[in-house]
Amino acid sequence: MSTVMDRSTLLVVAILLTLAAVLILVVVRQTRKTYPGFGLWAGSMALAMAGTVSFLTIQQVNPRLALLIGSLLLVVAFVFLYRGLLEFRGRTANYAFELLLALVLFAGFVFFGFVRPNLNGYVAVYSLCLGSAAAMGARVVLTGRPSYFGSPDRILASWLGLITAFTWSRAAYSALFLAPIDSLNTDTTFQTAYIAFQIISVLVITFAVINLNSQRLEHELRTTQASLERDIEERRRVEGALLRSQQQYRSLTENMDDNAWIYDMDDQRFVYVSPSVRKLKGYTPDEVMRLAIDSMVLPHQREQMQAVLDERHWDFLSDKITSQDFFLDELEQPCKGGKTVWTEISSHFVRSAETGHVEVHGVTRDLTGRREITEALRASEEKFRLAFASANTGIFLSDLEGRIQQTNSRAEQILGYNADELRGMLEQNLALAGDAWLTESNRKRMTDGLVDHSTYEQRFTHRDGPIVHCLVSSALVRGADDKPNAFITQLQDITQRRLAEKALHAALKKSATHAARMGALNETVKGLMRCENREQALHLIESRLEKMFFPFDCQFVQADLQGHLPESSADAQDFSVDLQGKVIGILRIYAENALLREEDLAQFAETVSDSISLALANLQLREETRLRVGTDGGH
């Protein structure tokens, strides 16, 4: 009982010290500059305190629940410490490690808590997870250390290593040596030592992380101080160069093509006009400074210009706009001699440091060349739009991912989709499944800089189902910075051409097959004419059937002595061979009726049977003639 009370007292001390650590970290974070990860460290201490509270309060009511909540909170506390160290060092979080810890801890609780209850086993799993989190934190501290870090990170790494050794030792002790326990209250050896070790750990870790932050802050202050000293030296150098810069600025404003000017809103007059105004409008600076501002625009624009100027003046006085707000206007201005020039005026309002008056500082630029270029570009774009819309080939405009942005009507006709359906679709998704790789492969070659355009054949699936054969021409479009920004793809429907080629190929193949068969038939007939008797003829017919009917199987089936023929086969077609009106055999072709019609085999088979019948009749006639001649000679 005293042991439990002593342990409860230690838990209370641990809670109070952890609460103090949390408050210290929060105060430091609120009163001093802290770096990424510091908030996670404070959260780590808070979670450690919550875990200790759960051990103290829930243990007496539900030991399993206390063990689950307390161990989970302590492991998460060390994960927070580990994550904070990662952020402090500017590294990426290892979510796989954290997920693995969670899975191992949960699996251990389920297995040792419910499947095979064993408190020793769960304590071993929990200690293993906690030690692993501490080990990962030590690894982060010791690797990639900035040169200006010193003892705090070494202290923290050493203590995290000590925590790792302690908790892994506890895992081994609980799993291998400790007698079975019913609750943590019976684990007197390591439990009390662990609580005391936790109290020391809170102090060490809090001291270490605060010093880590302070050390980095001191380094930043030293760096800032050095930078400030360099800035002071630089300022002295800049002040010396400022006088030279002012002279250069005066020379620049007096010789540049753009016209710089300053207009005093309070005195309603120009107080400065650069000499370049002569190039722009033909006036001298003195002539402009004697003119009213409304004389700088055409008569029909004066009222509108004055209203805009007064509105902006009022907005500046009422702080709706500041000197950082610039305005860009295009105006057609009169020149000396009656001509006009289109100009672009960039202006902003400032308050003069010398007079306190509100001034308009502006630069007027000649837009003649730009407007000519813009007009030419507009005309070019109109030509492109007309060509795009009326082209006899389908055209896609798509982004670098192949997502269609714009199509013409011919592309819609080829594929059967309307413009709204095609917009946003991936080109490779329109291709037949087996041909989609062509789009990706050719686009990669273009984006890799191997080629600027590519032409290839590809099959697409029409919206209604049929396959469409297309000749595809794709080109990479580059921007003004020479970087790829789009693709333009043309589709030419060659389906009819491919169907015609396929039909022609089939016809040629059929013609060649028929010629080969007819040649084989002629050779057979010639061979039959050279035979001396029916046996030779029938043997020759058997040997020639494969060449005449390839690739179909065919055999010659003779009738028996009574003239009977075998029954027809279900998977074959028979064609009779006659001799003087009597069926002496059949040609049996192993093929269905549909195949016979497709290959024109039925007609050819009838021709073969007729040819064989004629050849056999001729052979029989020759035999009878020889026999008759032999008989007559004998008499």
Q: Low-confidence parts lasting 5 or more residues at pLDDT below 50?
A: 1-5
Query: Could you tell me the number of beta strands?
Result: 13
State the end-to-end CA separation. Answer: 147 Å
Could you describe the largest sheet, including whether it forms a barrel?
5 strands, antiparallel
The mean pLDDT is: 81
Our Rg estimate from Cα atoms comes to 49 Å
Q: Looking at the structure, what is the overall shape?
A: flat
Q: How do the strands line up in the largest sheet?
A: 2-1-5-4-3
Strand composition percent? 15-25%
Helix content: 55-70%
Q: Indicate the structural class.
A: alpha+beta
Q: In DSSP terms, counting alpha (H) and pi (I) runs of 4 or more, how many helices?
A: 19
Characterize the structure shown:
The structure is a single chain. By secondary structure, the protein is of the alpha+beta class. It has 19 helices and 13 strands. It has helices at residues 2-31, 38-58, 63-88, 95-115, 119-142, 151-176, 188-255, 277-281, 285-290, 302-317, 368-390, 409-415, 419-422, 427-430, 436-447, 495-530, 534-549, 593-599, 601-634, and strands at residues 259-264, 269-273, 327-334, 340-351, 358-366, 394-398, 404-407, 453-461, 467-478, 484-493, 554-558, 573-579, 582-589. The strands form 3 sheets. A 5-stranded antiparallel β-sheet has the order 2-1-5-4-3. The longest helix has 68 residues, at 188-255. The chain starts with a helix and ends with a helix. The model is unreliable at 1-5 (pLDDT under 50).
